[in-house]
Amino acid sequence: MHLKLLVAAILSVLMVAAAHAQEGARAYFPVPAGTNDIEITGTFSHLGASGSSIDSATITPSYRRTFDLGGDAATFLIGLPLGKVSGTFNFPILGSVTQETDPAQGDLFIGGTIGLINAPALTPMAFAQYQPGFSMSAVGRVFMPTGAYDSTPPNLLNLGQNRWTVEAMLPMSYIMGTSLIDPNLTTFELIPTVQIFGDNNDPVGLAKVSSQAPLFGAEAHITHSFSPMVWASVDGFAAFGGETSIDGVKQNNGQQSLSAGATLGLTLSQSVALRLSYQQQVYSKTPDTTSRTFMATTAFLF
Question: Tens of pLDDT along the chain (302 residues)?
């Protein structure tokens, strides 16, 4: 294999593993129409494959507003990750290479949500009295190639992806409780996801173009409130697909993986909440891959 394809191929294995971003437990829990939500999420991830590894640390501020759209609950979302990435790569020809990026911005994303089944827009009073049950919404997000990116050799790492990504989700939940503010609330959640990627016409590794097949995923959560201030969940994640191609050469690196984790949620006041979660890969069709992520999200509602 030519050197430029070898470098790109090793990086593409890690790109597949990193592509699917999880939403987390109670990420789409209902809130009253008119609610503004500013979230700050810290994400710390480790990915390993083929003797190489990438560690990333990002802080993602985002803004979400919930509003009434024809009687259904809808949201508008915008966010921008900021952070840095470091990695160690073991190439058969080049040997071990270690790199680290400067702090930089990632890809800006915008999106929205619309209720499909039993997801009405609720006033604060109606929210407190609403009898929960099954609900489903549709979510769409677009990630723009606005992040810091440099493919000039010998650079191997970037926070930006230099490509467009479209993500679609169908969050579903069954909520058990006397109301949405029941202190002993239990939820069963399922979020199927698909990501569709544009081509990167300036990939690292000196290749001319890299592409990626759609990546499908699903996450499931069982959550329970132990008091008005504390809830927790057990979490499961699955991903498959996403094979990459380098200059038209398929890399045979489609993902089939399962991850498990747990989440702790704390309601600190009527307007401030904290969510801590950890997940780790427990199965992959590629035996030498590893993945683990810790996330901490602080939400400010007003």
Answer: 444 444 554 555 555 445 556 789 999 999 999 999 999 999 999 988 777 888 999 999 999 999 999 999 999 999 999 999 998 888 777 678 898 999 999 999 999 999 999 999 999 999 999 999 999 999 999 999 999 999 888 888 888 999 999 999 999 999 999 999 999 999 999 999 999 999 999 988 768 999 999 999 999 999 999 999 999 999 999 999 989 898 998 988 888 999 999 999 999 999 999 999 999 999 998 778 888 999 999 999 99
Whether the Cβ atoms of residue 259 and residue 289 lie closer than 8 Å to each other? no
Tell me which fold the domain 3-301 belongs to: Porin (2.40.160)
Q: Which of 157, 158, 159, 163 is nearest to 145 (CA)?
A: 163
Beta pairing class for 230-241 and 255-267: antiparallel
Residue 270 CB-density burial (10 A; 0-12 exposed, 13-18 middle, 19+ buried)? exposed
**First and final C-alpha spacing in the chain:** 56
- Identify the three-state secondary structure at position 77: strand
237 alpha carbon, distance to own chain's centre: 11
Rounded distance, CA 234 to CA 246, Å?
37
Report the alpha-carbon distance of residue 242 to residue 216 in Å, rounded.
Answer: 8
- Structural domain boundaries of the chain? 3-301
What's the rounded Cα separation, in Å, for the pair 106 and 101? 12
Strand partners, 160: none
**How far is the C-alpha of 259 from the C-alpha of 190, rounded, in Å?**
15
**For 234, what's the count of Cα atoms within 13 Å in the CB-facing half-sphere?**
1
Find the angle CA(188)-CA(189)-CA(193) to the nearest 5 degrees: 160
User: Look-up: residue for tokens 């409130």?
Assistant: 225
The residue whose two tokens read 């006033």 is 123
pTM (2 decimals)? 0.91
